[in-house]
Write a structure and sequence with these properties.
Helix 1 packs antiparallel against helix 2. By secondary structure, this protein is an all-alpha fold. The protein has one domain. InterPro entries: Desiccation-related_membrane, YtxH.
Length: 122
């Protein structure tokens, strides 16, 4: 099953159409004087426009925050990678000599154990 992507334009279009239909239904179903009806229409239009502006401002804020996050990531990630690579190289360098020392100590211990074992057998 295909998933449809969210479209801001379709959302706003649906919002406006929904506002118009809702406003029209309210006018037809609730009898008022002409002045009250005009006030009600104007209030509905104002509310719908305000909602559209709120959605637009929210989308712009999300977009601005996305750009800031992208810039931050582009700045920090290369430094993080470089620092991690340097730390790894230092670790490899230090561990190389430690491993050699451990191998020498193990060989010495093994020799001493063999010597001790031979002395016990004699």
């Amino acid at each position: 099953m295909d998933k449809k992507k969210f479209s801001g334009k379709k959302f706003v279009k649906g919002l406006v159409i929904g506002g118009i239909i809702g406003g029209s239904a309210a006018l037809l179903l609730a009898p008022r004087s002409g002045k009250e009806t005009r006030k009600k229409i104007q209030d509905e239009i104002d509310d719908t426009l305000q909602l559209i502006m709120d959605v637009k401002n929210g989308a712009e804020e999300v977009q601005a925050n996305t750009f800031q996050l992208q810039d931050l990531a582009e700045t920090l990630i290369p430094d993080f990678i470089e620092g991690t690579e340097k730390s790894l190289e230092r670790f490899k360098f230090k561990s190389k000599y430690r491993l050699e020392d451990i191998k020498k100590q193990l060989a010495k211990i093994e020799t001493e154990i063999n010597d001790f074992s031979n002395n016990l057998n004699e």
